[in-house]
Write a structure and sequence with these properties.
This protein folds into 3 domains: about 30 residues; about 45 residues; about 70 residues, no CATH class. About 65% of the residues lie in helices and about 5% in strands. It has 5 helices and 2 strands; from the N terminus they run ααααββα. A two-stranded antiparallel sheet has the order 1-2. Strand 1 and strand 2 form a beta hairpin.
Length: about 190
């Protein structure tokens, strides 16, 4: 007897004899009574929300076979990328490093003899550089103060406020020129 259904009575269905034979074979195969087998089928279709007439398409074994073919194709693609792209690139990089190492060994850096200068000339040079850098610093400080004076906060009614810089075109060009002529443009050759 089926557990949980002992007190229920049996009802018959009218089935074609070939369908009944298939159903009985199915029940024997899974080792369940005809009532429980039919109940399991109905629950399967209800929980998975599919109808018995729908086809899933391919079987699991055919899907396994397709996946195996895809994996083999993927492995083949990776191997071809290795052979056609990675290995030649690595070879070229290795050759470049070998060539550059050979060139560094061959190229000997020759230093020019340095011109000697007196202590007074050197002192004058550094004093001039110091004065130039101080002058440049003062110019930048004056430009920054000018920009801060011309900076005005604008309150926006519909969003975040912002700052507006009210400078004339001439002032902006002058500041650009002051920034472009910085002290590090001087070269050691000017000594």
């Amino acid at each position: 007897m089926d557990e949980g259904f002992e007190k229920e009575r049996f009802v018959t269905f009218k089935l074609k004899s070939s369908v009944a034979r298939k159903f009985r074979r199915f029940c024997k195969h899974y080792g369940k009574s005809q009532s429980l087998s039919l109940l399991d089928m109905i629950l399967f279709f209800e929980t998975n929300e599919i109808s018995p007439s729908e086809r899933f398409g391919e079987t699991i074994t055919s899907l396994k076979f397709q996946m195996k073919k895809r994996f083999n194709a993927l492995i083949a693609i990776i191997k071809s990328i290795e052979k056609q792209q990675t290995e030649p690139t690595a070879f070229l990089i290795k050759r470049l490093f070998e060539v550059s190492a050979q060139q560094e060994d061959e190229d000997q850096i020759e230093f020019k003899p340095q011109e000697l200068i007196t202590e007074n000339e050197e002192l004058e040079y550094y004093q001039k550089q110091y004065k130039d850098s101080q002058k440049h610093y003062q110019n930048l400080k004056a430009d920054t103060q000018l920009m801060l004076k011309k900076l005005k906060y604008v309150r926006n009614n519909f969003g975040v406020g912002y700052y507006r810089l009210n400078l004339s075109k001439e002032d902006i060009e002058r500041i650009k020129n002051n920034i472009d002529h910085v002290h590090h443009n001087n070269r050691a050759e000017n000594w």
